[in-house]
Design brief:
Shape: globular
Strand content: 5-15%
Distance between the termini: 20 Å
Bound molecules: pyridoxal-5'-phosphate
Number of strands: 12
Largest sheet: 7 strands, mixed
Strand order of the largest sheet: 1-9-8-5-4-2-3
Number of helices: 12
Helix content: 25-40%
Structural class: alpha/beta
Length: 368
């Protein structure tokens, strides 16, 4: 049996008639940029951000950059980010000229550790970017308390957390601003790159809208009020996302069901994910810990089971950041230890029961 890490082809086949119609409709109108599908998707996605206003953009990395620029963050400023995340959380901070200050994670939930955040605040700190890693929200009340004490902004990186909940409230509406990625492999994925920024602050969102489209208001094409850039969402991607969105809730439930099966089948043999009492995760990834990670990976591969590493190296130990900011080994001991022990198992809505069972058996067999 083969268990791929995800199966986007099967997902497309299940949606094919509606998807092909939606795409054809954009082609028929050649409305490739700025089509009606974009505003429609922004409105439809707002409930996933607790009712915050949504602005589509080109990808999740740009979304973070647009949020930072809208908040006026730039040279001389510091932004606190977690050590365990995808590189895209750090890059925009550096690209706007600020310093990414990398701090350690909580070893149980893998999200940014509030006490590490508190210890890293300096007179230059302007913002904190908690990442809802693997689909579980960070400890937002603790982070917001630190932000309130020091007058900092909080930007949620929701790239892995579409629909995740924190104390019954949706990720994306928990802080000043939030950013999403709709990269094809995310829980809600386009047929290419796409992203979004969300916020309840109309002034910030007006700024994001200007920044994403050359600094001009939608109806005044040659009046460039601020220096912006081109980070628009394609109409085709908005159309694709609009077709998929009604299925997101069901796909998330399927991910939760598979996670529960893994929890039950694997708790005795590996370290399973810990769900915080405040969190309702969406399992973008199902990440276990074990002593012989490479050995387990090889055994799984022999049995046709794909696995992934998210992430093999903490962000501060990436050469480019290490060189730019002088980061050292030992700076974030929990993240450094955990990066050598984690393994991501296949989890996607289209998995069959037989595939789920095969993954469980294959992991269990590796210890026999
Ligand atoms: C995927 C991802 C991003 C970046 O999104 P892109 O759309 O690929 O630019 C940012 N942060 C995290 C945590 C991600 O997983």
């Amino acid at each position: 049996m083969i268990v791929p890490f995800s199966d986007l082809k099967r997902q497309y086949e299940n949606l094919r008639p509606a998807m092909d119609l939606a795409i054809q409709s954009v082609l028929d109108r050649t409305a490739f940029v700025g089509g009606a599908e974009i505003a429609a998707f922004e409105a439809a996605f707002s409930p996933y951000c607790g009712g915050a206003e949504v602005c589509g953009c080109a990808n999740g990395t740009d979304a973070i950059e647009l949020a930072l620029l809208a908040l006026g963050i730039g040279p001389g400023d510091e932004v606190i980010i977690p050590a365990l995340t995808f590189m895209a959380t750090a890059e925009p901070v550096a690209l706007v000229g600020a310093k990414p200050v990398v701090v350690d994670i909580d070893p149980l939930t893998y999200t940014i550790a509030p006490d590490a955040v508190a210890a890293a605040v300096s007179s230059r700190t302007k913002a904190i970017i908690p990442v809802h890693i693997y689909g579980q929200t960070a400890d937002m009340d603790a982070i917001q308390a630190i932000a309130d004490t020091h007058g900092l902004h909080v930007i949620e990186d929701c790239a892995q957390a579409h629909g995740a909940e924190y104390r019954g409230r949706r990720a994306g509406g928990l802080a000043d601003m939030a950013t999403f990625s709709f990269y094809p492999g995310k829980n809600l994925g386009a047929f290419g790159d796409a992203g979004a920024v969300a916020s309840r602050d109309p002034a910030l969102m007006e700024k994001v809208r200007l920044l994403r489209d050359h600094g001009h208001p939608p109806k005044d094409k040659f009046s460039h009020r601020i220096i912006g850039r081109n980070s628009r969402m394609d109409t085709l991607q908005a159309a694709v996302l609009g077709v998929k969105l009604p299925y997101l809730e069901g796909w998330t439930e399927k991910r939760r069901f598979i996670a529960a099966r893994y929890d039950q089948g694997l708790a005795e043999v590996v370290t399973i994910p810990v769900v915080a009492d405040y969190a309702r995760p969406v399992y973008h990834l199902y990440v276990i810990q074990c002593d012989d990670r490479e050995g387990l990976r090889d055994r799984l591969q022999e049995r046709g089971v794909a696995s992934g590493l998210h992430y093999p190296r903490p962000i501060h130990l990436q050469d480019c950041l290490r060189e730019a900011y002088g980061y050292q080994d030992g700076m974030c001991p929990e993240a450094e230890r955990i990066c050598g022990r984690i393994l991501s198992l296949p989890i996607f809505a289209e998995m069959t029961e037989a595939q789920v069972q095969h993954v469980i058996e294959s992991v269990r067999q590796a210890w026999r």
